[in-house]
Amino acid sequence: MRTIALFTTGGTIEKVYDERQGVLENQRSIIDRMLARLRLSGTHVRPMNLFSKDSLHMTDADRAVVLSAVKAALLSDVSGIVIGHGTDTLHLTGELLHRELPSPRCPIILTGAMRPFEMRRSDALQNLTEAIFATGVLKPGVYCVFHGAALPFPGVQKNRELGTFHIAPLPSP
Protein backbone atom coordinates (compact mmCIF):
# COMPACT_ATOMS: atom_id res chain seq x y z
CA MET A 1 0.00 0.00 0.00
CA ARG A 2 1.45 3.36 -1.05
CA THR A 3 0.90 6.28 1.31
CA ILE A 4 0.69 9.83 -0.05
CA ALA A 5 0.75 12.95 2.13
CA LEU A 6 -1.63 15.54 0.62
CA PHE A 7 -1.32 19.09 1.91
CA THR A 8 -3.92 21.70 1.00
CA THR A 9 -3.38 25.44 1.08
CA GLY A 10 -6.47 26.73 -0.72
CA GLY A 11 -6.18 28.31 -4.14
CA THR A 12 -8.58 28.08 -7.05
CA ILE A 13 -8.71 24.27 -6.85
CA GLU A 14 -10.66 24.54 -3.56
CA LYS A 15 -12.64 27.75 -4.03
CA VAL A 16 -16.36 27.52 -3.32
CA TYR A 17 -19.22 29.81 -4.28
CA ASP A 18 -20.59 31.94 -1.43
CA GLU A 19 -24.24 32.58 -2.37
CA ARG A 20 -24.69 35.39 0.15
CA GLN A 21 -21.76 37.41 -1.14
CA GLY A 22 -21.85 36.18 -4.73
CA VAL A 23 -18.11 35.38 -4.84
CA LEU A 24 -15.80 32.40 -5.21
CA GLU A 25 -13.51 32.17 -2.19
CA ASN A 26 -11.44 29.86 -0.06
CA GLN A 27 -13.51 29.03 3.01
CA ARG A 28 -12.33 25.55 4.01
CA SER A 29 -10.70 22.55 2.41
CA ILE A 30 -12.91 20.49 0.09
CA ILE A 31 -10.22 17.92 -0.72
CA ASP A 32 -12.22 15.09 0.91
CA ARG A 33 -15.01 15.68 -1.65
CA MET A 34 -12.47 15.44 -4.45
CA LEU A 35 -10.82 12.29 -3.06
CA ALA A 36 -14.25 10.64 -2.71
CA ARG A 37 -14.57 10.85 -6.53
CA LEU A 38 -11.35 8.86 -7.10
CA ARG A 39 -10.72 5.13 -7.10
CA LEU A 40 -7.31 4.74 -5.49
CA SER A 41 -6.77 1.02 -5.16
CA GLY A 42 -3.49 0.33 -3.36
CA THR A 43 -2.99 3.98 -2.47
CA HIS A 44 -3.77 5.62 0.86
CA VAL A 45 -3.95 9.41 0.78
CA ARG A 46 -3.49 11.30 4.05
CA PRO A 47 -4.97 14.79 3.57
CA MET A 48 -4.00 17.68 5.84
CA ASN A 49 -5.28 21.22 5.47
CA LEU A 50 -2.49 23.70 6.24
CA PHE A 51 -4.62 26.78 5.50
CA SER A 52 -7.23 28.00 2.98
CA LYS A 53 -5.97 31.03 1.08
CA ASP A 54 -5.82 32.41 -2.40
CA SER A 55 -2.13 32.10 -3.26
CA LEU A 56 -1.94 35.84 -3.93
CA HIS A 57 -2.45 36.25 -0.17
CA MET A 58 0.22 33.72 0.81
CA THR A 59 3.17 35.12 2.72
CA ASP A 60 6.71 33.92 3.29
CA ALA A 61 5.48 32.69 6.68
CA ASP A 62 2.81 30.59 4.91
CA ARG A 63 5.45 29.11 2.60
CA ALA A 64 7.52 28.28 5.69
CA VAL A 65 4.51 26.34 7.04
CA VAL A 66 4.39 24.35 3.78
CA LEU A 67 8.14 23.69 3.95
CA SER A 68 7.88 22.53 7.57
CA ALA A 69 4.97 20.19 6.76
CA VAL A 70 6.88 18.70 3.82
CA LYS A 71 10.00 18.20 5.95
CA ALA A 72 7.94 16.38 8.59
CA ALA A 73 6.28 14.19 5.94
CA LEU A 74 9.69 13.25 4.54
CA LEU A 75 10.54 11.79 7.96
CA SER A 76 7.47 9.53 7.85
CA ASP A 77 6.49 6.51 5.77
CA VAL A 78 5.09 8.42 2.76
CA SER A 79 6.11 7.44 -0.76
CA GLY A 80 5.10 10.80 -2.19
CA ILE A 81 3.86 14.27 -1.28
CA VAL A 82 1.20 16.31 -3.09
CA ILE A 83 0.53 19.98 -2.36
CA GLY A 84 -2.71 21.59 -3.55
CA HIS A 85 -1.77 25.20 -4.23
CA GLY A 86 -3.06 28.34 -5.88
CA THR A 87 -1.62 28.91 -9.33
CA ASP A 88 -0.51 32.53 -9.01
CA THR A 89 2.35 31.86 -6.60
CA LEU A 90 2.82 28.09 -6.98
CA HIS A 91 6.19 28.80 -8.58
CA LEU A 92 7.43 30.63 -5.45
CA THR A 93 6.60 27.70 -3.19
CA GLY A 94 8.08 25.23 -5.66
CA GLU A 95 11.32 27.20 -5.91
CA LEU A 96 11.55 27.36 -2.09
CA LEU A 97 11.04 23.59 -1.76
CA HIS A 98 13.58 22.93 -4.52
CA ARG A 99 16.15 25.20 -2.85
CA GLU A 100 15.60 23.97 0.71
CA LEU A 101 15.19 20.25 -0.12
CA PRO A 102 17.81 19.56 -2.78
CA SER A 103 17.69 15.76 -2.35
CA PRO A 104 14.23 14.68 -1.16
CA ARG A 105 13.74 10.93 -0.77
CA CYS A 106 10.46 10.93 -2.77
CA PRO A 107 8.62 13.07 -5.33
CA ILE A 108 7.10 16.33 -4.08
CA ILE A 109 4.31 17.47 -6.40
CA LEU A 110 2.62 20.88 -6.51
CA THR A 111 -0.69 21.10 -8.36
CA GLY A 112 -3.78 23.26 -8.54
CA ALA A 113 -6.48 24.28 -10.98
CA MET A 114 -7.39 27.12 -13.31
CA ARG A 115 -11.09 26.51 -12.59
CA PRO A 116 -12.49 25.51 -9.16
CA PHE A 117 -13.58 21.92 -8.54
CA GLU A 118 -17.18 23.11 -8.16
CA MET A 119 -17.32 24.62 -11.67
CA ARG A 120 -18.12 22.89 -14.95
CA ARG A 121 -15.10 22.05 -17.08
CA SER A 122 -12.87 22.24 -14.02
CA ASP A 123 -9.38 20.84 -14.35
CA ALA A 124 -9.14 20.26 -10.58
CA LEU A 125 -9.88 16.53 -10.46
CA GLN A 126 -7.66 15.83 -13.50
CA ASN A 127 -4.71 17.66 -11.95
CA LEU A 128 -5.18 16.03 -8.54
CA THR A 129 -5.38 12.57 -10.13
CA GLU A 130 -2.27 13.21 -12.22
CA ALA A 131 -0.38 14.51 -9.17
CA ILE A 132 -1.21 11.43 -7.11
CA PHE A 133 -0.22 9.18 -10.03
CA ALA A 134 3.02 11.13 -10.54
CA THR A 135 4.19 10.31 -7.00
CA GLY A 136 4.47 6.71 -8.11
CA VAL A 137 6.36 7.21 -11.36
CA LEU A 138 8.62 10.24 -10.96
CA LYS A 139 12.06 10.10 -9.37
CA PRO A 140 12.58 12.10 -6.16
CA GLY A 141 12.51 15.87 -6.73
CA VAL A 142 10.13 18.83 -6.76
CA TYR A 143 7.63 19.09 -9.63
CA CYS A 144 4.59 20.95 -10.87
CA VAL A 145 2.09 18.46 -12.32
CA PHE A 146 -0.57 20.17 -14.38
CA HIS A 147 -2.58 19.38 -17.52
CA GLY A 148 -0.77 16.14 -18.36
CA ALA A 149 2.76 17.46 -17.81
CA ALA A 150 5.29 16.92 -15.02
CA LEU A 151 7.57 19.95 -14.89
CA PRO A 152 10.68 19.79 -12.67
CA PHE A 153 11.78 22.77 -10.61
CA PRO A 154 13.59 25.11 -10.97
CA GLY A 155 12.17 27.28 -13.73
CA VAL A 156 8.45 26.44 -13.64
CA GLN A 157 6.27 29.43 -14.51
CA LYS A 158 2.54 30.04 -15.02
CA ASN A 159 1.64 30.79 -18.63
CA ARG A 160 -1.31 33.14 -18.26
CA GLU A 161 -2.07 33.24 -21.99
CA LEU A 162 -2.42 29.46 -22.27
CA GLY A 163 -3.80 28.94 -18.76
CA THR A 164 -1.24 26.32 -17.74
CA PHE A 165 2.40 25.95 -16.65
CA HIS A 166 5.66 25.66 -18.57
CA ILE A 167 9.41 25.74 -18.00
CA ALA A 168 10.68 29.29 -18.43
CA PRO A 169 13.38 29.65 -21.08
CA LEU A 170 16.88 30.30 -19.81
CA PRO A 171 18.04 33.90 -20.20
CA SER A 172 20.28 34.58 -23.20
CA PRO A 173 23.99 34.90 -22.39
What does this protein look like?
The protein is α/β, with parallel strands linked by helices and 173 residues long. It has one domain (2-167): L-asparaginase, N-terminal domain (Rossmann fold, 3-Layer(aba) Sandwich), CATH 3.40.50. Helices cover 24% and strands 31% of the residues. It has four helices and ten strands. It has helices at 31-35, 60-74, 90-100, 124-134, and strands at 2-10, 16-18, 23-25, 43-53, 80-84, 107-111, 141-146, 149-152, 156-159, 164-167. Strand 6 (107-111), helix 4 and strand 7 form a beta-alpha-beta unit. The protein starts with a strand and ends in a 6-residue tail after the last strand.
Give the CA-CA distance, first to last residue: 48 Å
Based on the coordinates given, report the CATH architecture. 3-Layer(aba) Sandwich
Strand numbers in spatial order across the main sheet: 4-1-5-6-7-8
Structural class: alpha/beta
What series of H and E elements makes up the topology? EEEHEHEHEHEEEE
* Portion of residues within helices: 10-25%
Total strand segments: 10
The number of helical segments is 4
User: Could you say what the CATH topology is called?
Assistant: Rossmann fold
Query: In the CATH hierarchy, what is the class?
Result: Alpha Beta
Uncertain segments: none
Beta-strand fraction estimate: 25-35%
Q: Describe the largest sheet.
A: 6 strands, mixed
Radius of gyration: 15 Å
The figure for the number of domains is 1
Coarse morphology: globular
